[in-house]
């Protein structure tokens, strides 16, 4: 049995679903849909791919429900189907990356940087609802820890079998024996995959998670930092922005390939580009992305006479200061965070209740 408990499905709904009742199947799946989507995101590092693969996995589950004999929980069986769908998808897709994975930092601001269309990029994740899945103390990673940018980017450096084994064991609490069955392999192979994956984890994932850091900062101080960042961009206040950053801060903007590290380089970039070369900014209220503080950034569009979505800015914190800014430049992400498609000119600045 899995280390993570779950309620048994309704026998009546299970019988109805096996007989072709799609409403009964939807009722069986709904309690697990959110966590299955997060699982697909961890495996694929893309919210859009997670949407597609989860839909494919549920279609496979619907078609194969007659083969569910009840020897495991429905939840375990659904994870088996979803994991295999993710592994199939991973074989046909390029591994996703962040700009910091692909080359050295730029020493001078790049004006007019062009997206690297040939690169598959890690995408931000709207984590509303995560953390509700019951876990046991021996599960190593909390649900939100396991969607943090550092963890998700690290997973992309692993082969599919190692990625799946690590997530299923360390995040979801399945045993090596269960994982062997789910992945149609041996316990020895699972343990070997786990050992190799843990070596990569130790070299690429910070020892202190963002969840622990955020608890130490506190919600009020964190909100002050995020809204001060928004105010700095909206007012062009370089000194305020600099005061929020660590000495070794990094700033990246996928799909743009160039990135910056160190307070001097980031300051030069910020002054040259977002503060003085982009136009007028407005921001959403603070949101959460990948279990980390974030904000939606909007740029003024004179033709439409409104502020249009520009980027989801995700912050990695060290104490109360920002250690990393990852600005995901794609308006299509905004809907997933429940953010409006535009802001009117009169929209108040974030620090005053935006």
TrEMBL record:
<comment type="similarity">
    <text>Belongs to the sigma-70 factor family. ECF subfamily.</text>
</comment>
<feature type="domain" description="SnoaL-like">
    <location>
        <begin position="226"/>
        <end position="324"/>
    </location>
</feature>
<dbReference type="InterPro" id="IPR039425">
    <property type="entry name" value="RNA_pol_sigma-70-like"/>
</dbReference>
<dbReference type="InterPro" id="IPR032710">
    <property type="entry name" value="NTF2-like_dom_sf"/>
</dbReference>
<dbReference type="InterPro" id="IPR000838">
    <property type="entry name" value="RNA_pol_sigma70_ECF_CS"/>
</dbReference>
<dbReference type="InterPro" id="IPR007627">
    <property type="entry name" value="RNA_pol_sigma70_r2"/>
</dbReference>
<dbReference type="InterPro" id="IPR037401">
    <property type="entry name" value="SnoaL-like"/>
</dbReference>
<dbReference type="InterPro" id="IPR014305">
    <property type="entry name" value="RNA_pol_sigma-G_actinobac"/>
</dbReference>
<dbReference type="GO" id="GO:0006352">
    <property type="term" value="P:DNA-templated transcription initiation"/>
</dbReference>
<keyword id="KW-0804">Transcription</keyword>
<dbReference type="GO" id="GO:0016987">
    <property type="term" value="F:sigma factor activity"/>
</dbReference>
<dbReference type="GO" id="GO:0006950">
    <property type="term" value="P:response to stress"/>
</dbReference>
<dbReference type="Pfam" id="PF04542">
    <property type="entry name" value="Sigma70_r2"/>
</dbReference>
<dbReference type="Pfam" id="PF12680">
    <property type="entry name" value="SnoaL_2"/>
</dbReference>
<keyword id="KW-0805">Transcription regulation</keyword>
<keyword id="KW-0238">DNA-binding</keyword>
<dbReference type="InterPro" id="IPR013249">
    <property type="entry name" value="RNA_pol_sigma70_r4_t2"/>
</dbReference>
<feature type="domain" description="RNA polymerase sigma factor 70 region 4 type 2">
    <location>
        <begin position="150"/>
        <end position="198"/>
    </location>
</feature>
<dbReference type="GO" id="GO:0003677">
    <property type="term" value="F:DNA binding"/>
</dbReference>
<keyword id="KW-0731">Sigma factor</keyword>
<dbReference type="Pfam" id="PF08281">
    <property type="entry name" value="Sigma70_r4_2"/>
</dbReference>
<dbReference type="InterPro" id="IPR013325">
    <property type="entry name" value="RNA_pol_sigma_r2"/>
</dbReference>
<feature type="domain" description="RNA polymerase sigma-70 region 2">
    <location>
        <begin position="28"/>
        <end position="95"/>
    </location>
</feature>
<dbReference type="InterPro" id="IPR014284">
    <property type="entry name" value="RNA_pol_sigma-70_dom"/>
</dbReference>
<protein>
    <recommendedName>
        <fullName>RNA polymerase sigma factor</fullName>
    </recommendedName>
</protein>
<dbReference type="InterPro" id="IPR036388">
    <property type="entry name" value="WH-like_DNA-bd_sf"/>
</dbReference>
<comment type="subunit">
    <text>Interacts transiently with the RNA polymerase catalytic core formed by RpoA, RpoB, RpoC and RpoZ (2 alpha, 1 beta, 1 beta' and 1 omega subunit) to form the RNA polymerase holoenzyme that can initiate transcription.</text>
</comment>
<dbReference type="InterPro" id="IPR013324">
    <property type="entry name" value="RNA_pol_sigma_r3/r4-like"/>
</dbReference>
